[in-house]
Write a structure and sequence with these properties.
The chain is 44% helix and 11% strand. It is of the alpha/beta class. A five-stranded parallel sheet has the order 4-1-5-6-7, sandwiched between helices. Strands 2-3 form a two-stranded antiparallel ribbon. Helix 8 (179-187) links the parallel strand 5 (171-176) and strand 6 (191-195). The longest helix has 17 residues, at 67-83.
């Protein structure tokens, strides 16, 4: 049997779903539980990894060295998020077309779907599970915000895990709503598809270098055709390096 030909790496927040503020509540509760410091931060996480974001937020609260706190903080953050899974489903929402697109791609031979998200593993998987999307995703081969602070490294690590499990892919596609998602895809040498359902406009995603930009995923047949068939990049474009540069 031929190995799967296409790996699709989905961002979570504002690409697949909106969490209704539940993630921020879990983050704040975990911070206070671990540090004893009242939360007074402003969590603007769009496109960032939790490993890059957490030290900045700890510093905002007067904790210059977040290192000793990170392991217990992430563990508590995962637990606080899991305890609020019912609120995620009640207060959050799936974005247009998402369940139908993921289900249709799951039925396509040669397609593997996973997550590449700035959320830590437990939180990212918990969010999609709260909305019943997890059966469509091989979350074991994803890239998560507790893997590495640099988002392009998450793309590369996910690709490595996926190819170890499924074989080599002819194309890897990152789908996300921020310029950070696009930049990570380009730095990792893979295809970038921007979705203008988050903080970045379609024009901003295109200016960042996205190979394709979608307003949303509501045109299910069109989105599935785009993601599941054919190469999405210009064949004349020079190949991008597989190794990620350092930095964001």
């Amino acid at each position: 049997m031929l190995p799967p030909a296409r790996l699709i790496q989905w961002d979570v927040d504002r690409t697949l779903l909106v969490g209704g503020g539940v993630g921020v509540e879990a983050f704040a509760a975990a911070f206070t539980a671990v540090t004893g410091v009242a939360w007074a931060g402003d969590l603007q996480a769009a496109g960032r990894t939790d490993l890059s974001l957490a030290p900045e937020l700890f510093a905002q609260h007067g904790i210059a060295d977040a290192g000793p706190y990170l392991r217990p903080f992430f563990a508590r953050y995962g637990a606080e998020s899991a305890a609020r899974a019912h609120l995620m489903a009640a207060r959050g929402t799936l974005l247009p077309g998402v369940p139908d697109v993921l289900a249709a791609l799951h039925r396509r031979p040669g397609v593997v779907q996973t997550l590449v998200t700035g959320n830590i593993r437990a939180v990212g998987i918990g969010k999609v599970a709260a909305f019943g999307l997890d059966p469509y995703l091989d979350t074991a081969v994803g890239g998560y915000g507790d893997d590495h602070p640099v988002r392009s490294e998450l793309v590369l690590r996910s690709r490595g895990r996926a190819e170890a499990a499924h074989g080599e892919f002819t194309e890897v596609v990152v789908v996300g709503d921020t310029v950070h998602d696009v930049g990570a895809a380009l730095a990792a040498g893979v295809t970038a598809v921007g979705v203008a359902t988050g903080p970045a406009s379609a024009a901003e995603l295109a200016d960042a270098g996205a190979h394709h930009v979608l307003d949303d995923l509501s045109d299910v047949d069109g989105v599935v055709a785009l993601l599941a068939t054919g190469r999405l990049r210009d064949e004349a474009a020079p190949p991008q390096p597989r190794r990620s540069p350092r930095g964001h």
